[in-house]
Prior knowledge:
alpha/beta; 24 strands; 14% helix; 31% strand; globular; binds 2-acetamido-2-deoxy-beta-D-glucopyranose
Amino acid sequence: MAACCTMLILFIAFLYLHNTAIADLAIPTNSHTINQWLLDNTNPMRVELDAELAEAERNTIVITVNKYGKGDFRNVTDAINSIPVGNKVRTIIKIAPGIYHEKLLIDSSKRFVTFYGDPNSMPRISFNGTAKFYTTYNSATVAVNSDYFMASNIIFENTAPRPTPRMEGAQAVAMRISGQKAAFYNCRFYGYQDTLLDDSGNHFFKDCFIRGSTDFIFGKAQSIYLNCELRSDAIGFGVITAHGRDHKGLDTGFVFAHCVVNGGGNLFLGRAWRSRSRVVFAYTYLPSNLNPKGWDDMGFPWHQRTVFYGEYKCMGPGAVTNQRVNYSRVLTDRQARHFLDLNFIHASTWLLPPPKL
Ligand SMILES: *[C@@H]1O[C@H](CO)[C@@H](O)[C@H](O)[C@H]1NC(C)=O
Ligand SMILES: *[C@@H]1O[C@H](CO)[C@@H](O)[C@H](O)[C@H]1NC(C)=O
Ligand SMILES: *[C@@H]1O[C@H](CO)[C@@H](O)[C@H](O)[C@H]1NC(C)=O
């Protein structure tokens, strides 16, 4: 009896220690430990998960899309249409390799949707909507208004031509994510101006590739980009981010950690699209063609006093900060901590690893 109780107490103590040991949501300094750290912190059985999400994950279904007819549907549009309004189960749309010329909208009634592709032959969802024909917001090849969206091994593309100075409304979004609590793993986003509209909500991007020329990651969201490649395709002036925070009470912002910036152009990290624009680059490689000023006020000098543009432990020839604009900051450990943590996107309540199919 006593031995049994001792065993039980030891076991409970083990569980407790084990749980506290894994609950370290601070992004590791060492990039080689990220994958294991993320697995430890995205256990699908953990107790903090939103109840509806936990329930949806217990009832996962898979539907298949194959453009040659060997699946449940021939295109993604039909697969999305098959999901019921008020969907309550994790619905994985497994998309076979190929190019899908479709313009997709997942409305807010269809939660818990996952797009899943083959990592060795990623399906490409491709369209050419522009701001002129649809408005920037509605130009997206794929637009998601629902919560708990995930995508893994998918290429999102807008093939509208590169804007020239004479073109009106040539902005063309490849993906707009407006739902809460979305994760993208190993996805690729191709466009020029306004490639990725990271519109609103808490979002996580890992191992992604994002290509564009100006403001190619923009929106009002609260997001972490981990181990992503940001490829400038700019000829001349280029900007990676245009974050749209406009009120000091909001905790929104874009955080880039362990990323790589590359490509051409006279490149800036971000510009002050809205007064409280907030962006942090940490542990990220910055190339020699990054403009030494780093950031741009987008013609709103009064935003200089209110934006929050931070850099922390970046490397590469572009990471030298002594010629930066005077409204950018090199973050202290204490200032960086808030951003370099999965708690910044409240991940403990929703972030899950990519599915294994
Ligand atoms: C999807 O496929 C259905 C028939 O299988 C077709 O009627 C529809 O036009 C297709 N939609 C798109 C956007 O390709
Ligand atoms: C998209 O491409 C088609 C031809 O494939 C063209 O007719 C259409 O005008 C293009 N749309 C936009 C918005 O550029
Ligand atoms: C920052 O630099 C600009 C010139 O680029 C100057 O007008 C402004 O007064 C400076 N602000 C501060 C707070 O030093």
